[in-house]
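Posting this for the archive.
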Amino acid sequence: MSDLSMLIEVSGAVAAAGGLGYAKVHAPRVYWSLVGLPVARVRFASSYRSTMDVCGLTVQPSRLRAFMVRTVARRPDVQPVPPKVRRVRGSMTGMRVTLRLPAGLEPADVAAASERLRHAWGVHSVNVVETKPGFVELRMTGYDVLRRVRMPRRVPSGPMVVPVAVREDGSVFVRDYRKVPHALTLGANQSGKSMYQRNLVKGLARLPVALVGIDCKRGVEQNGYAPRLSALATTPDDAATLVDVLIREMESRFDLLSEHGVSDLWGLPDKVRPVPLVVLVDEVSELFLIASKKDEERRERLVTGLIRLAQMSRAIGIFLEVCGQRFGSELGKGATMLRAQLTGRVVHRVNDKQTAEMGLGDIAPDAVSAVTLIAPDRPGVAVAGDSSGGWSRIRTPETTPEDAVAVCRQYAYLTPDIPALAPFRPALPEPAPAPADTAPLVKPVPVTE
């Protein structure tokens, strides 16, 4: 009987160990919640002071504290003071620790030691975020959340907020058009740039906005979104004409703002407020390149119109999403000026360092090297930067073209009717013809007299 009970205990232990090993590979969230998080908490609590001291994140105590230690505690030696732990929270992907920085330390000091903290506490990554003056948050991830992307159940929402990807710290990367009105997305072939656009279109299709597509590859990328598009241009000539129409729409909206004495679209009454409009530009280099001298006039008109939209259209609710494989100074006059107006930057894997520098070099120089390290076998991984100098790695969840097309068809009823864009409204695909009636299996027998 004792041998049987021992066999059962050993079998149970082996099964539990095998289950944890399976969860570590195939269900990392479960493994982190059951094993990783408790171990990380114990390791953090037991080694916090010594780790901070070794990493140079301690300061000499104040004179009052030193006096109290020597007189009240009667200890001749006064230990350096690390940042004070205010709060420790666990999550399904990692752990977050709020620290109160002592005088003499700044967030950059903690960020510089993030790699050493990661190894000391045995977590996958440590990101340092300043929450308010004097406070930072250590956002630790217990595993590689970008290996298998899963959007959290609770995502940020708002009138012009679109969840697009997951950051490497487990939070959600969103496109908030009221904060970042225009953006530039770059990436080589098979880098995941198209997948990023599909996730963006899926989110925008659910919002009460007008979508305008410019796809000079004969519409191969955006033709499927036709049920949700208010306008679509598939050639450079059509794109130039469409941009002229958007300029006139912008001017008419400015007149509307002047009539009501407000400074932006959101100050207008609901009854007269025009619908926000998002312009999706695919492969921007096709708009800059010219094949002959006669195309120069069209190019100048097109580029000038895009620059005017990028400079002025935020207040009247027209936003630009510019995408391309390459963006460099060789595109010609106007490229750098247009780039300067596109505040949001997302750069996937690129074929040359110059494109990475054009995308992120002017706002987050440290992120350029991170782009060059993106592996070819990880499509969808990108580096997102902002005008504040911060950047983070993101990855979009896998989305097929059929998924994006299905969402556009489902929300086609939200497509607004804008008279100025009516000539560019794409033709909806015709439904497939019904199958022809098949011949009867039994032929009728002729009746003879």
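The chain has 13 helices and 14 strands. The first helix runs from residue 2 to 26.
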